[in-house]
Amino acid sequence: MALSGALRNAVGRTCGVTGLFVDRSSERLIIVNAVTAVLWLATGGVMALLIALTRWPAVHLISSPEWFYRLVSAHGAAMLVFWILFFEVAGLIFGGTILLNQPMVAPKVGWLAYGMMLFGSVAAAVVVLSGYATVMFTAYPPLEASHWFYLFILVFAVGALIAVIHFLVQITRARITGRIRTLPLFTFGLVVAAILALFTLASGTAALIPAWLARLGVIETADPGVYRLLFWGFGHGAQQVNLAAMVAIWYGLASLMVGARPINEGLSRLAFLLYVLFIQMGSMHHILVDPGLSHWARGINTSYFLYAAVMGSMIHAFTIPASVEVAQREKGHTGSLFAWLRNAPWGSPGFSAFALSFAMFGILGGISGVIMGGIQLNLIAHNTLIVPAHFHMTVVAGTTLAFMGISYYLVPLITRRDLFLPGWAKVQPYIFTTGMLIFGIAMGLAGHWGVPRRHWDISLSAYPFAAGTFDGPRIQMALAITALGATIAIIGGTMYVIIAAGTVFLGKRNDVPNIGHVDAGAFAPPAPAAPHVGRGFEAPGTMTLAMTWLALFVVLYAVSWYEFSSIQWGIR
Amino acid sequence: MIERSSTLVAPGARWWSPLGRDERLWFMVVLVWALAMFLMIFVIWPAIGDQQLTFSSYRTDTATFKAAVDASIAAHQVGELEGRPLVAPPPGDVYLLGERFQFTPALRLKKGETYRLLLSSSDVQHGLSIQPDNINFQVLPGYVSAITLTPKQDGEYTIVCNEYCGIGHHLMVGQIAVVP
Description:
The complex is a heterodimer. Chain A is an all-alpha fold. In chain A, 67% of the residues lie in helices and 2% in strands. Chain A has 17 helices and four strands. In chain A, a hairpin with a 6-residue loop joins β1 (12-14) and β2. Chain B is elongated, with a radius of gyration of 25 Å.
């Protein structure tokens, strides 16, 4: 059921760049969700700087432990939950309406979801910053947080759940009405993210409701072990949502920037399906050194049942660069093994953000996560700084950078304004990545040497026998470099906030916004693949890179086991 | 003829095609690596490793556990360390309590002997982090982790709390001395 021309014009417009139908409700909701997301990113970024400079022992910026712990609590919520989820809701609206050429099913539902998320997030942050819920983003019972904190987080979570269900209704309607048969791979990835989000948000709600009722005195206690199991279904589950959304964006940006067409559509979709089936099992790696579960249950879950979900990621790790390589070779960049890569549009922020996010996530985030998520090796990683080092490589260097990359296109197209400071946008992904690379490696090393996360003062100077545990020069150096990397990354993040907010509020109005280079094949209909000649690989450069990456993975895995085996304690 | 599609538009009606040579090779390599990691966790390391995560656990209530800690201190205390009891238990059960903001008691263990560390909390969650070896366990109130430990190297080990447990979290430490 296609909308008639007049009706389409009444509820929306046709995009001057892509030719897609842009529903007015979708447009407004994308803008408010994206702007709110960026404001949370800015807020969380200020906190990040204060935290990083406090964890640099020589500086130790914040002199009040109370404020330090408040800021760590608020930073976690602002970044891991609020920034990411508001942006993802904007992405879901885009993928469910505009990309499918359809208006929004129920704009009021979209606004209800937004309203609940906005209220819940702001109210929860106020509670945390006022000192009524200095319990970290994880809020493990029986730590005492104000019951309002749980309520506000629950309001936010239910709002997000409504937004996700709204998206799934959009997709279902497009299928039922025959508007679309097979989804574009980008939207398919978002559907996978949304399915994971349903589980995630339900698990979080199931964790928080008993904790909330316990604070209200309705029930006696919330079991701390059960809470951790359910909470991590949300806490890590949300990161699996980010993963699926980020991979979808990688595919999308690869198509947008170089006209990439996945070399095997079925294999890419199978890899997404592996996420749906297996990836949530991995959430259990947060409780590997907890009491409560059997060795077998912990092991089988955190090995993702034969690492099936990891295989999904490793398939994407090959098919995404391979599709870029094939597209580039079709353009004639065949001179050498890596001519396709050298001649990629590195000056376009969409490409650089995609490529850097892909590399950082794959090399630092992915490998570290698989290694420390195994049942034995987790013993030398749990709650040390290597854990935040890992998830800053995935969520910040990976997901956040991918989100930044796509918003350089989405924000101008949706707001019909030229990108603000396009010259900054060209260099922003490089500055941000440089900072995150330094930050991730240094912080990971500090954690590897035992430095605890969420800790105001590692001098331990109150106790002579403990003082000096972390005073060695390598740890002090690593923490100083961590703060330096964080500062560089925050400069990159600030540039992004200025560009994004500047585009929305100050960008030059333009019905055909100038978004820089976009590949002509990005929105072209499917076409036969160019015949592959010869007996060699179709993507030899990618094969070389992928094998090199795997070799690094094997080496790091072996080194980790060696480190683990050198612990001077027998443990059973 | 295989059709390929931009990820931003819907693919044609038949989007499944057999895997090409590149994908087949990579898929097989990935499968082998996934299997290797799985075998390392479930077969190889359990057969050869000295450090296993096979510890058991049981539920308790905080008062019962605290009483057991106190009884153990009364039976095996040998001195004091900066205001907390120093306990030198014989091989067997060793109690360690996390409570805001210290680990009690300080322990003196003998190198090469095997102990069953019974670990719990009397208030909120804590993190047991033995430094510098970097051994980390989560400590929950209401649950006891029963971890069998055999120190193989004498020396002084600091326990740091690495789960946020309140405003004095950074003050929470403990000690294990391993003597020859």
